[in-house]
Amino acid sequence: MEYWELYVKRIRKLCRERGIAINKLANMSDVKQSTLDNIVRGLTKNPRVKTLHKIALAFNMTLAEFLDFEELNEYSFEDDSDD
Hints:
Oligomer: single chain
Distance between the termini: 17 Å
């Protein structure tokens, strides 16, 4: 799994658990709908920290809490060529 896919999976999972549609998340986070769509569709593979922070706040989480999940914590950059 690619690195960017991990936080897309995280966003989708949190939306599903909380019954939030992506368009509602855009409103809640004050992130443009097009920006959020591009992230979720994988067109934006490296969103800004500010954007992820706004998304985290919409889920009532800190950025640290949002990024603290098993798949991301266990990710290895050894095979990642995007240095």
